[in-house]
Amino acid sequence: MTRWSRRAFVRAFGLSGVAATAAPRFVTARGREAFVAGAAQSAAIIHLNSNENPNGPGVKALNAIRDALPLGNRYPYEEAGTLTAAIARLHGVQPGQVLIGCGSAEILRMVMQAFTSRTRHLVTGAPTFEAPGDYADIFGVPIRAVRVGANLKLNLATMELEAQGAGLVYICNPNNPTATVVSAAEMSAFVERVGRASPQTAILVDEAYHEYVDDASYKTSIPLAVTRRDMIVSRTCSKIHGCAGLRCGYAVAHRETIAKLARFKLETGVNQLAIAAALATLGDRERVERERTINRETREFTRRMFESMGCTAAPSETNFILVDLRRDSRLFREGCRRAGVLVGRPFPPLDNHVRVSIGTMEEMQKAMGIFKRLI
Description:
CATH architecture of the largest domain: 3-Layer(aba) Sandwich
Strand content: 5-15%
Shape: globular
Distance between the termini: 35 Å
CATH class of the largest domain: Alpha Beta
Number of helices: 15
Largest sheet: 7 strands, mixed
CATH superfamily of the largest domain: Type I PLP-dependent aspartate aminotransferase-like (Major domain)
Structural class: alpha/beta
């Protein structure tokens, strides 16, 4: 494994020149997808590209948003404290162990600023969610990107070796785009080994897709994070809670770690409407279970359909699947775009794969007709 700049990483794994140089590196999620695809926002377009919840916010969240509209003229200082306390109760931790942010993107940015530097590199997967790598490029932080294994899982053994002297190791669990998980036992052992070998290295576990996981071996890393000064867990309201456009995320960590991150926080990065929606939806267990069931059924339909076309759909613990088309995916992706279906961006070095977010059953049925013609 060699030391990488972001630019060298892009060159080595073959990301197209347009995507690598034209799209602003700080643009993430749908912003990145829309920029690369050049697609207009339209009700006729089926968005299977950004891992959003197609069902949107729940009824409780929508009602809370409407009730909060009159607060639009007030800074959300008190409300931010209320949300922080509510998140702490939800996870059985103290408010001082929680920090809210403008989506998990702000959390990732704060962690990068707090723990990495030009002399303390970032260790990340290849492929994985790119935001930490994008921030590394902006901040001049070296990157050591470790390719996923043949089973599409993060290569923890090599990441552990690369963690020597690192500022931060980024673990997306479940991983985007491969939809695989690191088990609780694997994570605990990894954290212990890295902590002994490189005590100054922090570990960020991104649990954006936590609520979708069915694998019994998987567990949240929050109990680990609140007892250690070298670990952070990030969560978001963007996925199962359907609030991607509202921008609310949070970190859970040791009190001293939270204080370190807070130095880089926007003073009022989470607005009144996002706070209201988060307060209403985070504890709505009935809706979470309903969304889990809907996603599971629609994801299984999608997997079966791709496999009936001769493709291989990797097992998924998320609201998307990674499909091996067994050919370069660029023509498929472009054909989908022209037909009004947006699928995931390139994820080098997996050039034969395409990430497909799970939409509504109606959307997936419509999209399958287009997929069949293209495949």
